[in-house]
Amino acid sequence: MTDWYTISNAAAIPSPAVLVYPDRIQANLQRMISMAGSAERLRPHVKTHKLPQIIEMKLAAGIRKFKASTIAEVEMTLTAGGRDVLLAYQPVGPNVRRLATLMRRFPDAKLSSLVDDTRNLATISRTAVAENVVLPLYVDINVGMNRSGILPGPAALQLYRELCKAPGVQPAGLHGYDGHLRAADQKHLEAEADKAFAPVWAMREQMLGEGLPVPNMVVSGTPTFALMARKGGVEVGAGTTVLWDFSQEGVCPDHHFENAALLMTRVLSKPAPGLLCFDLGHKAVGSEMPHPRVRLIGLEDAEATTHSEEHLVVKTARADDYQVGDVVYGIPRHICPTMALHSDVWAVRDGAAAESWPVVARARRITV
Question: Which end of the chain is more exposed for a tag (fewer CB within 10 A), N or C?
Answer without folding.
Answer: N
